[in-house]
Amino acid sequence: MKYGAGRRRGFTLFEMLVVITIIVILTGSSVALISNMFRGQGVRHASAQVRAAFANAKQFAANQRIMHFMVFINKQVNGADESGVIEIHKDADQNRTYNGDLTVGTSDPDPSLIGTTVDLPKFVMFKTKPDWVGINPTGYCAFPPGFNEVGAGTFDSDLKNNKLPAGDIILNMPNQTYYMALDVDPGAGKIRKSFFLNQ
Known about the structure:
Blueprint: H1 13-38, H2 41-64, E1 68-77, E2 80-90, E3 118-119, E4 125-128, E5 132-135, E6 141-142, H3 152-160, E7 169-172, E8 178-185, E9 190-198
Antiparallel strand pairs: 1-2, 1-5, 2-3, 4-7, 5-6, 7-8, 8-9
C-alpha cells in the first residue's frame, strides 16, 4: 500500500495569488508605518543638536567664567541654502555682545572654539532665530539688541492650540511641512520646550 496516494502536492495558482496579495498588503502598510515613524526626523535631530549646543555653551561659560555665544547661521553653498550651522564663540573682548562676522569662516574678534561647530542635518535650516545667544557663567541668556524673546506663556498657548508657535528658534526643511519650534528659557540658559508640527 502506498502512503499519500491521492494527496496533491504544491499550491494552486489561486492559493499563490492569495499569499502574494497578503504579502503586498502587509508590505504597503509597513512602509506607511515606517514613513510616519521617521517623518520630520531631520528637524527633530536638529532640535537635539540645538539643545546640546546650549548645554555645551553653558558648560564652557561656567568653566571659563566668561560669557560664550552660540552663533546661528544658515550656510549657503553655490548660492543655495544647504544647512544651518551653530558655532560656539568666546566673548574675548568681554563686552557681552557678539561682535563677530556672521559669515562662516571669516575672522572674528570673538573667536569660535575649535571643534564646537555643529552642522545641522542637510537642508535643515533656521527659519527664524536670533543671530546669537550669549550665556554667562551663571547660565543667564543674553540676546542681540532688538530681538524679541518669545514669552513662555505665548509659546505654551500656541502649543495648546496646535499651531506653529512663535518660537525663539524655528527649524524647517525647505519645501517641507515639518517644523520644530524651540522656546529658550533665558533664566536657565537652555531650551525650555520644543514643539514638532507637520502643517
